[in-house]
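As a next step, we paired sequence with structure tokens, yielding the entry below.
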Amino acid sequence: METKHFSHNHPLVFVEALEGDGEKEVVCSGCKESLVGLGYKCSTVCDFFLHKSCYELPHEIQHPMHPNHTLVLEQPSKDIRRSRYCVACLESCKNFYYHCNSCSFALDIKCASRWRINNTGDDHPQHTFTPIFKQIQFTCEACGVESKDIASMCSICQFLIHTKCAHFPRKVKIFAHDHSLTHAFSLCQVKKPDDVFCKLCRKKMDTKYSAYYCDQGCDYVAHLTCAYDLQASCPVDSSNITLDSQFHEQINLQDEGETVLGEIKHCSDHQRHSLCLSMNKELDDKFCEGCRQLILLDTSFYNCEQCNIFLHETCAKLPKKKRHLLHQHPLTLVSRGDCVFYCRACECYRKGFSYTCDECNSFSFDVQCSSLPETLKHESHQHSLLLAIYSTDQCKACSRLINDGYYRHRFVCTECDFALCFGCASLPLVARYEYDLHDFLKLTYGVEDDSGEYYCFICEERRNPDHWFYYCEKCDFAAHIRCIFMPLRRP
């Protein structure tokens, strides 16, 4: 079957066993190397041959030595005045070469192939970086940051990067992903330059620069510092961590107690009496012992009639053990009663049930924060929010900023500038205040009127109009969130 190639005027035919006749060697017209075996030749009498690999070279590539522009495969010109010089070896391009149509950059195919452009991630394998022991102003070709610093250079590729960027390990293992992550000096070699977001901070990534990615077929990428810092701060034994059960390690309620005709003996501290399943049909102040939230009308719950204890049905059926994306060890459900604990997700003091790490005694999540999904749809925002392990974004509900240099967890929108902290993302949509005569206060995301004067009716202090608050429309009652949940404040 005949085929066409851009470098030759006549059709080519595929030949499985090309070789010379003993007197004349067959030479590839693309790379000028000897050709034996699979290849293509001119269907006429032209002395034109191509290795199969040279014939299959991609017409366009993104190359880490010139990441800003696409390079196009070309053949050398017969006009010496139009000759190109390879920027890597500084010799005239006598073979096929890749050329940038936007500038004079050219790279012959031999030098281009030294960067194994495939999805192994080992895209700078045989070259050594040499430190330049002098501070110079440059833009790092690994992280994209411009600074005056000590650089390291690859003498073959003239690849100039921060010395610290040259020392990132080739492989890292983080608890947030099942597989090890592989270092790529240029992410565009392994990912299409579409919208690519770091799985840890949820920020858009520039594929011209270095990153860690999963080479097992997972769509998982992360900034160098995000992945490396997580590995350093939370080291994992790769033999002991799998995230297949990250949010699914359920233990049946019957394993911890008996269930008979809508009755259970719960695995919490309250084991002396059975809890009966009921439906809330009355408007009264029933609060769940597990999450310490109001039990709403038409909500199923368990209760102990002797002790006046209540549990949402969902809280009663929480798994005894679970894994969470924010911690490397399994977490165990613990009943705290009236003892106060500190939730590491929302950074608030809480009561009720917690998920606590047996290995890190001081690490706990409250059940509300631990139940928030990795992808959150909140009624305050039109787009889905994604859990970011590392974030410096300001919470849109409370304006809480990162003021101590420490990364915090956020639910962030990748389509616009919107983020929620765990504390605000887990707020109940309705709340009760004992002195309000009406049914409920509703969580409200914008000011109630255009007066420009906004006060809390509980503490009588001004309210920030940008902050969320609880509001009763019937009596025009507005209150700070902190005043509604007065007993437990942030530290």
Remarks:
- Residues 375-425 form one domain.
- Residues 116-123, 238-261 have pLDDT under 50 and may be disordered.
- The chain has five domains: 2-55, 60-114, 115-239, 375-425, 429-491.
- Residues 224-233 form the longest helix (10 residues).
